[in-house]
Structure formats: structure tokens, C-alpha cells
Design a protein that fits this description.
226 residues, 7-stranded mixed sheet, single chain, alpha/beta, 7 helices
Length: 226
């Protein structure tokens, strides 16, 4: 194993290593594995592949949290317009240099919540992958998070939120409740290896689709027959 990057900044400890036999690269932060790609930069982590499947090939994606950028790279290579937001500029630099992050990915240095509150943009999909170690920062778990995500999502879009814990964990259950309060119907996708792994919380924008269907219905509420 070859160490490519060792970076300590405050309480953030990042290490990037390369496996000598395969050329695969791994990104660790505070001991947690965030990114694992092969020599070509293709993703090798199950939860990232599951996030990609749940996002369902969107035309545009807002990615909150970057690390080595494996998900951003995967989506961009398939033609998605990706905006990646991270509050640590060095993450972008590492992703570009060591993990094949394409130049087409728009990188924005900003706090995720501050970005959501200030942006007027909308995306077909939003992926939330914000951590310190394996914990979601308390700043992400606010009462208005569902409304902020809804505002940034185009009609019919999808949200995929990654939790590094089980479906019954407190963070997963809190996020589900918060999204339900904003009118979503979230589902959970466990990506587990025994008792260890990730849970994806997935919301498709059925709220706006349902509203559209109601607008198209006859005024007396009866169905028409063609």
C-alpha cells in the first residue's frame, strides 16, 4: 500500500492510499472509508452504487458532500450535469488529482445548509452525503431541511440521503420523520453487511405529481372515460 495524501487540518484527518497490486485508491477521513475506486476511477463501494441506482440517471444532480467524488464522477461520465458542494476546498483538489473527478463537475466551496438556504437553483436529483467521520453533522438535522431540499428539487425529482447506520438508527429515523413533515413519502434501502453498512433514504417527488393529477381531474371529481 502506498500513501498518496496525509492531511491533518484541525480535527479533520484525511488519508488517501493506493493499493500497489491493483492501483485502486481509497479515501479515509477520521478512519472512515469514504471513497474506493479502481485504477480508472470507477466506483467500488456498494453504497455509492446503490445511491447511483436510486438516483435513476438524472439530467442534473446536486451533490452535497464530495470526499473523493466517486458518485460525482460516475454521474458525470454518464452525461449528468453535476454540482458538487463541500465546505472543504481540499476535498475537490484531492478528487481532481487522485480520483479522476471530471472537469465538467461544478465544484462549489460552501456549507451545505448555507448553500441550500441561498440557492435559487433547482436540480432533477439531490444526493446528500455529508459526514464528519461516520456522523451526520447536527447542522444538517434542522427542522427546515425537508423544505430546503424540496425548494431545490425540480418537479418529479428525487432525493437520496445516505446514512452510515442501520434503518432503525436515530439519524435514519429522524430524517424520515423530517421528510414526512415536508410532505414526502420516504423509503429506506439498507446497504448492509451484517450489522454494519449504510441506509439510503429515498424520496421521489410524488407531492407535485399528485397535485398535477388533481389539477387535471374533472371539476366534479368524477373520472372521464375515453
Amino acid at each position: 500500500m502506498k500513501v498518496l495524501v496525509e492531511h491533518d487540518e484541525g480535527d479533520r484527518r484525511v488519508r488517501v492510499v493506493e493499493l500497489k497490486d491493483t492501483g485502486a485508491r481509497l479515501y479515509y477521513e477520521d478512519g472512515a472509508l469514504y471513497t474506493h475506486v479502481d485504477v480508472a476511477g470507477d466506483n467500488l463501494l456498494d453504497y455509492v452504487a446503490a445511491m447511483d441506482d436510486a438516483l435513476a440517471s438524472p439530467a442534473s444532480v446536486l451533490l452535497l458532500g464530495t470526499a473523493g467524488g466517486a458518485l460525482a464522477t460516475l454521474l458525470s461520465r454518464r452525461g449528468a450535469k453535476v454540482t458538487a458542494v463541500d465546505n472543504w476546498q481540499t476535498a475537490f483538489d484531492i478528487a481532481r488529482r487522485w480520483f479522476h473527478l471530471p472537469s465538467t463537475v461544478k465544484c462549489v466551496k460552501a456549507d451545505a445548509m448555507a448553500f441550500l438556504r441561498s440557492t435559487s437553483g433547482q436540480w432533477d436529483a439531490i444526493a446528500v452525503d455529508v459526514f464528519r467521520g461516520v456522523k451526520i453533522p447536527d447542522a444538517m438535522l434542522t427542522s427546515d431541511i425537508g423544505a430546503l431540499l424540496a425548494k431545490a428539487m425540480r418537479p418529479g425529482g428525487v432525493i437520496v440521503w445516505n446514512v452510515a447506520d442501520t434503518p432503525t438508527s436515530w439519524p435514519a429515523q429522524w430524517i424520515v420523520r423530517a421528510l414526512r413533515l415536508s410532505g414526502f413519502s420516504p423509503s429506506m434501502i439498507p446497504v448492509m453487511d451484517g450489522d454494519v453498512g449504510n441506509t439510503l433514504i429515498v424520496c421521489r417527488d410524488t407531492r407535485r405529481l399528485a397535485a398535477s393529477a388533481q389539477e387535471d381531474a374533472p371539476a366534479d371529481g368524477r373520472a372521464t372515460v375515453g
